[in-house]
Automatic annotation (TrEMBL):
Positions annotated to bind cob(II)alamin: 61, 135, 156, 159, 170, 216, 241-242
Domain 4Fe-4S ferredoxin-type: from-to ranges: 177-209
Keyword hit for Transferase: no
Gene giving rise to this polypeptide: queG
GO terms (BP aspect): tRNA queuosine(34) biosynthetic process
Amino acids binding [4Fe-4S] cluster 1: 189, 192, 195, 248
Catalytic activity, reaction form: epoxyqueuosine(34) in tRNA + AH2 = queuosine(34) in tRNA + A + H2O
Binding residue positions for [4Fe-4S] cluster 2: 199, 214, 241, 244
Record's protein name: Epoxyqueuosine reductase
Length: 311
């Protein structure tokens, strides 16, 4: 039996590597007891802003067996998206978008890989019951990745991998297959406070994020007008924000991704070159077709740009 578990574990990790995932870690599918009070307090403080969906499915967020009955393992995966070049630094634009949004929406790219992953396991091992997730359900991705040793949750609340920093998409397979588990690693943030000191809206305190002050939240999740208190504090970010990652010393180890779908389209580079002067509804449709930026719609992106112009 133990040999079978070891063989299956090796197969899972080999499949992850074959499909292009940079790191793979495994945890036992069980209730996240330590996270329950933290999540409850964070919600009670209203630190989730107007993301009311965060209040839903409290039990499911903490217990993977409520998402997949009979689940035995959580397979955590990291997929690199660090770009070859920083558009905001290289082009003469006043505006910036988060690096994860340069190419095709990661949900599409990674979800396809996860489906293939599950199919391959089924074909090699036999019928496995499970579900795949990429930022699309009440799964505490960073906590599972930390539990499986893929990194630690840093002071900026992002998962930091000791070998390659934090520019990763996180994904999971929750499956009813028993596997060998990996243990967590220690926290290597030390006394560094660069992410806290560099956040222009004071959204970060050590190991906690007030999402209602986070530039990513303000430019993507918030559907209302951006509060006036944030004028002159957005530092040109029109969609998302990378500040707390850009200043993190661990990201000096970031490596360029090898996923063609994440490379920016020439139309996006032209938009940066022209300082966004050409942005119309039609240009938005062309430039951001299949992009994560579509989440804001043209109206949301225009709201962000207008707010930046006032600053």
């Amino acid at each position: 039996m133990n040999n079978q578990i070891s063989n299956n574990t090796r197969l899972v990790k080999a499949t992850a590597q074959k499909l292009g995932f940079d790191f793979c870690g495994i945890s036992k599918a069980e209730f996240l007891a330590e996270e329950a009070p933290r999540l409850e307090n964070w919600l009670k403080r209203g630190a989730h802003g107007k993301m009311s969906y965060m209040e839903n499915h409290f039990d499911k967020r903490l217990d993977p067996t409520k998402l997949v009955p009979g689940a035995k393992s959580v397979v955590s995966l990291l997929y690199n998206y660090y770009p070859e070049s920083d558009l905001s630094a290289e082009e003469p634009s006043n505006y910036k978008i988060a690096k994860y949004a340069y190419g095709t929406d990661y949900h599409f790219v990674i979800k396809d890989k996860l489906k293939t992953f599950l199919q391959e396991l089924n074909s090699e091992i036999g019928a496995i019951d499970g579900r795949v997730f990429v930022d699309s359900a009440p799964v505490m991705e960073r906590q599972w990745a930390e539990k499986s040793g893929l990194g630690w949750i840093g002071k900026n609340t992002l998962l930091i991998n000791k070998n390659q920093g934090s520019f990763f998409f996180l994904a999971e397979l929750i499956i009813d297959l028993e596997l060998e588990v990996d243990g967590p690693i220690k926290d290597y943030c030390g006394t560094c406070t660069k992410c806290i000191d560099s956040c222009p809206t004071d959204a970060i305190t050590p190991y906690e994020l007030d999402a209602s002050k986070c530039i990513s939240y303000l430019t993507i999740e918030l559907k209302d007008n951006i509060p006036q208190e944030f004028e002159n504090k957005m530092e040109g970010w029109a969609f998302g924000c990378d500040i707390c990652q850009d200043v993190c010393p661990w990201n000096r180890f970031s490596k360029k991704h090898s996923e063609p779908a994440f490379s920016p389209k020439k139309e996006l580079i032209e938009l940066f070159n022209n300082n966004w002067q050409d942005l119309t509804d039609e240009v938005f449709r062309v430039v951001f077709k299949g992009s994560a930026v579509k989440r804001t719609k043209m109206s949301g992106l225009k709201r962000n740009l207008d707010f930046l112009k006032k600053s």
